[in-house]
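Thread amino acids onto this structure.
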């Protein structure tokens, strides 16, 4: 089995004419030139392009050391961040750790449990997390590029206070790891004033492209995952995408097909997975594509479904609702699990026809049948084959999606690296909360 991720246009070709595909190919090639020449809008945010081969080795070593210390001295790590400052780490940890990793870690006493905070303003969530930590040893990784985002700032106050009460100011400062701007911002000031160990969100990498920086790497390493293999996967994918002509270039093809389908009225792209562990990869992908493309009145709306679960909730719409959908399926080729359906003498549930088959075989047949039905229902299908749920494959997938997203955004004619719309709600919220300098319009 290949260890390389593969994009397959699958049935989407049948929904497009030769001319439409040729036009999309031409536009995507022009967009990729703009990206690589660094001649487009947002070109000061292209640090992620060479990141897999050009990252700070000294910081990478410190990340591993900090992760080992956290695993040694803490039963719990609280990762505080929102949007691009948490989704990559959450996606990787959920995808690669066992499904019930926190419960497993609690029962075996190995490593540490990992919880995320600061991605909402829910008092209930914070209170429950404080209770869950109880009197156990814990550490905090607070992640904010700007250092001023309200949600993580509130969560950090709560957990910093808890740490300081438990360990004293000095003890707490040895358990707080701040990932933020190299020089500026409130969090950087706080970290310097208190002597927290700091890691850098590079100036030229936006939040949603930051999973392979310290933003993603420290929590991922603290979970016990192999960040060398993750970076190697990204490096392999980068090498392939930089060198390959269009016909062999998975990211360019993905960008071309989705743009060609969008031009034909397929305005919503659903990312579908058949592994619950991939739920947060879809959340990460939605932010990446939604924030990068949704602007100037344009953009494919990124949606996601977990299958077969959501066939029992969203299935009707996908099959039969407004025909504005295209679907991209992430297929994990090797489930690495041989669990089989058992044989039952009485067969009251009528499942003996599956006895002896692996559950993954059943899952794959469900996937194939679903794709056929969706295509029949005029939902074009594309596929991404992931060799397995491992670090190397996920490193490839992260880079593949980032590269395709940059190219897709330029193909669409937007700046894929800004997010002006994200500020709008904040102005109203600050005015309502009475923050100095803000008034409602
Ligand atoms: O992609 C982005 O830039 C955003 O989603 C940010 O990551 C998010 O708003 C958090 O910002 P910060 O890291 O400054 O707290």
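Threaded sequence (441 positions):
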């Amino acid at each position: 089995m290949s260890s390389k991720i593969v994009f397959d246009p699958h049935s989407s070709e049948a929904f497009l004419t030769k001319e439409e595909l040729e036009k999309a190919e031409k536009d995507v090639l022009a967009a990729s030139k703009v990206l690589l020449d660094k001649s487009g809008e947002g070109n000061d945010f292209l640090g992620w392009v060479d990141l897999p081969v050009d990252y700070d080795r000294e910081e990478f070593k410190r990340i591993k050391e900090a992760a080992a210390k956290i695993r040694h001295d803490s039963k719990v790590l609280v990762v505080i961040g929102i949007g691009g400052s948490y989704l990559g780490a959450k996606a990787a940890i959920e995808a690669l750790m066992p499904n019930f990793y926190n419960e497993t870690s609690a029962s075996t006493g190995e490593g540490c449990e990992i919880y995320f905070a600061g991605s909402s303003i829910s008092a209930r969530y914070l209170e429950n997390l404080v209770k869950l930590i109880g009197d156990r040893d814990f550490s905090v990784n607070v992640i904010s590029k700007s250092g001023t985002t309200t949600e993580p700032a509130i969560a950090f106050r709560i957990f910093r206070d808890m740490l300081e009460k438990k360990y004293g100011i000095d003890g707490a400062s040895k358990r707080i790891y701040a990932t933020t701007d190299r020089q500026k911002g409130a969090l950087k000031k706080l970290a310097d004033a208190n002597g927290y160990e700091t890691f850098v969100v590079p100036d030229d990498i936006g939040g949603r492209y930051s999973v392979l920086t310290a933003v993603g790497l420290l929590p991922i390493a603290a979970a016990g995952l192999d960040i060398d293999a993750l970076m190697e996967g990204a490096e392999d994918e980068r090498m392939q995408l930089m060198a390959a002509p269009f016909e062999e270039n998975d990211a360019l093809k993905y960008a071309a097909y989705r743009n060609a389908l969008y031009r034909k009225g397929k305005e919503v792209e659903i990312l579908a997975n058949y592994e619950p562990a991939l739920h947060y990869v879809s959340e990460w992908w939605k932010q990446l594509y939604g924030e990068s493309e949704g602007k100037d009145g344009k953009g494919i709306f990124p949606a996601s479904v977990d299958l077969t679960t959501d066939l029992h909730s969203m299935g009707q719409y996908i099959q039969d609702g407004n025909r504005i959908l295209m679907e991209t399926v992430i297929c994990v080729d090797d489930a690495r699990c041989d669990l089989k359906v058992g044989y039952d003498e009485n067969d009251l549930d009528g499942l003996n026809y599956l006895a002896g088959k692996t559950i993954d075989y059943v899952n794959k047949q469900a996937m194939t049948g679903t794709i056929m039905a969706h295509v029949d229902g005029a939902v074009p299908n594309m596929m991404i084959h992931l060799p397995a749920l491992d670090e190397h494959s996920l490193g490839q997938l992260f880079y593949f999606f980032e590269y395709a997203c940059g190219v897709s955004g330029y193909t669409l004619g937007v700046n894929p690296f800004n997010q002006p719309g994200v500020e709008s709600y904040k102005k109203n919220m600050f005015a309502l909360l009475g923050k100095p300098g803000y008034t409602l319009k």
